[in-house]
Specification:
641 residues, alpha/beta
Length: 641
């Protein structure tokens, strides 16, 4: 019918389009052959047979078979071309072409059953497929038979599979191209890295060569210097030999002269012996006096040197024996060989120590303060000064630092001197004085001028760029005279922790620190300096078994010994000049950081007991003070606001 004809033509058109797509994608398809070209194709030239060997005859037979196959293939291609042309243009379709193609298809089936070369078999298979497709289109186009839908779907499926394979091939090609680009980049990177390594190797070789040349020049210079030295040594040896000969001649002459003079003086020897005996006693006394003066001068110069270097100055004070110690049969275990020296006898052993000053039992408070007075002058000049007392419980620290009202100690006298200086300089300078007092009790900071303690107030140690270490939220009062400070000190003593032990009836159970800050303004230049005086009364070190402390006193003693041990670690670290000093191991050392290791002048009183029963504790205190004396703080500087 007309509709079937149009459908076949549409299928033919789709098939033609598919063929063109396959050709565009590079799929090799046999081109249609023109019948005229086929007729004009050159026929194989037949060769005259010749009488040859059986092998030659077999070769000729094979050649004839191949020629026949080529002729058959040519005919098949010609008929296929005619049939293809007829399908595209029905008016040009020759009669009998379809039947001829069917016969060719049968022949191909027969030929494929025999042994053929691989390329010939491939071409016959291709022709068979093409003949099947063309004959199927011919039957569908020129007969009334319905198209085989299953075959059409199969062909469509094969086309889709073919398209998928083509897409997969294209994807693989793109992947290979990407891998090729990656390999090219890797090759480029490798070449660059190789070039860098070669350049580094070249530079290394040049550096080694330069170093070798430099070492060679140095060795050559050393060799030249050595040769010159050898020549000079040879000349020196010759000169020395000449001088030795000359000296030998002179020595022999001197020996001869001395022998003559000795023989002449032997007669006067008894007279000289008598004169020497007469003047020996007088000379010895004079020599002893001169030696004492020399020792005193040496110590003064040494102390001045220590002050210039900024060492911690150490004064030793020995208290008198108490009535209790005398009643217990204790005797004095200390002696004073010379000024600034003290010797402690412990059993059969004796140990000597030397300090800047040593004050014996009879020394008075005023005498001790006279050597401390120069440091107080520095406070008004804008320097930081720290004075503290160290020693075992009951050695007289609190008496030295505070003292009773009728015999005041260093604190009271230092503050009096401070206000005297402020009054003397009133015409050229104005000064304000502020005072604060705190104690460190069981590693806790307590404000002794605040009668109403609150757990909510936190006392934390801070660092001020000018004033150094200070305690946040600590009460501070401005004072105009030393009497004002006396009132605050009474309040502080009332609030301070103390207790009774076997070694001291009124033992300080905390470290007390009195801070005095002096801000001075020069009326002419307007320069403001800030000086700080830190007066520290340390709690006494003690052995728990000897002091008889129990309960709360035991806990206090442990905290005191821990903080004093931390102070000893800081002193030892400073004396060794370690890179790190453990100031933060206790609140005490943290507060004394700018006094022990900063821009400050520091004076330490080491208080000892002379009692033989306390010889061991006295030795420990003196040993600690001796280490502290070796700490170099460096020259102190004025603090400007």
């Amino acid at each position: 019918s007309t509709q079937s004809t149009w459908e076949l033509q549409a299928q033919l058109q789709e098939f033609s389009i598919a063929l063109h797509r396959l050709k565009a994608r590079g799929v090799a398809l046999p081109p249609p052959t023109d019948p005229e070209e086929k007729r004009e194709r050159r026929r194989p030239v037949k060769k005259e047979p010749a009488a040859k060997s059986p092998a030659t005859r077999r070769t000729q037979e094979q050649d004839q078979q191949l020629t026949a196959i080529e002729i058959l293939m040519t005919n098949i291609q010609a008929n296929m071309s005619n049939l293809e042309l007829g399908l595209q243009r029905p008016e040009l379709l020759q009669e009998g072409v379809a039947e001829e193609c069917r016969r060719h298809l049968e022949k191909i089936q027969v030929i494929l059953s025999i042994d053929l070369p691989q390329h010939a078999a491939f071409e016959f298979i291709t022709m068979s497929d093409q003949l099947h497709e063309l004959l199927g289109l011919h039957d569908a186009l020129f007969t009334d038979a319905q198209p085989d839908e299953v075959e059409a779907e199969k062909e469509a499926e094969e086309l889709r599979v073919l398209e998928l394979e083509i897409e997969e091939e294209e994807r693989l090609c793109e992947q290979k191209e990407s891998e090729l680009d990656t390999l090219k980049r890797q090759r480029s990177d490798a070449e660059q890295e190789l070039s860098s390594l070669q350049e580094a190797a070249r530079q290394h070789a040049l550096t080694q060569a330069a170093d070798a040349n430099k070492e060679q020049r140095v060795l050559q210079e050393r060799l030249t210097d050595s040769l010159s030295l050898v020549v000079n040594l040879k000349q020196s040896v010759m000169d020395l030999k000449h001088q030795l000969r000359t000296a030998s001649v002179e020595q022999r002459a001197a020996n001869t002269l001395f022998t003559q003079q000795l023989q002449a003086s032997m007669g006067e020897y008894p007279k000289l012996v008598e004169r020497a005996r007469a003047g020996e006693t007088k000379a010895f006394v004079t020599l002893k006096k001169l030696y004492a003066v020399e020792v005193s001068t040496r110590k003064k110069l040494y102390n001045k040197l220590q002050e210039l270097r900024g060492n911690i100055r150490v004064y030793c004070r020995v208290r008198p024996l108490s009535q209790k110690e005398i009643g217990q049969g204790s005797t004095s275990s200390v002696t004073y060989p010379s000024e600034g020296e003290i010797v402690v006898k412990e059993g059969a052993k004796q140990k000597a120590f030397e300090f800047d000053m040593v004050f014996a039992e009879q020394a008075q408070q005023q005498e001790i303060f006279e050597d401390t007075k120069p440091l107080i002058n520095c406070v008004v000049d804008g320097y930081k000064v720290c004075i503290f007392a160290y020693g075992q419980t009951g050695s007289g620290k609190t008496f030295t630092m505070q003292g009773p009202p009728e015999c005041p100690g260093v604190n009271r006298r230092a503050l009096s001197r401070l206000f005297e200086l402020v009054a003397e300089r009133a015409e050229t300078e104005t000064s304000t004085v502020n005072v604060s007092v705190l104690e460190i009790y069981n590693e806790t900071i307590r404000d002794l001028l605040n009668d109403h303690h609150s757990e909510k107030v936190k006392y934390e140690i801070k660092t001020h760029p000018v004033e150094g270490q200070y305690v946040e939220n600590l009460t501070s009062f401005e004072v105009k005279a030393v009497e004002d400070i006396d009132q605050y000190m009474v309040r502080a003593e009332r609030n301070r922790s103390s207790g009774r032990t076997n070694m001291n009836e009124h033992s300080s159970r905390s470290h007390m620190l009195l801070y005095v800050v002096v801000r001075t303004k020069n009326l002419q230049s307007g320069v403001v300096t800030v000086g700080k005086l830190s007066l520290v009364d340390l709690a006494g070190s003690e052995r728990v078994g000897k002091s008889g402390a129990t309960g709360e006193r035991m806990k206090e003693a442990q905290c005191i010994n821990k903080s004093l041990s931390a102070l000893g670690d800081v002193i030892a670290s400073l004396s060794r000049n370690d890179s790190h000093t453990p100031y933060r191991n206790s609140k005490l050392t943290h507060l004394l950081k700018d006094s022990l290791g900063g821009n400050s002048k520091c004076l330490m009183f080491v208080n000892v007991s002379p009692a033989s029963s306390n010889a061991n504790e006295s030795n420990n205190s003196l040993q600690f003070a001796f280490r502290a004396r070796g700490v170099v703080l460096g020259p102190a500087k004025r603090n400007y606001k």
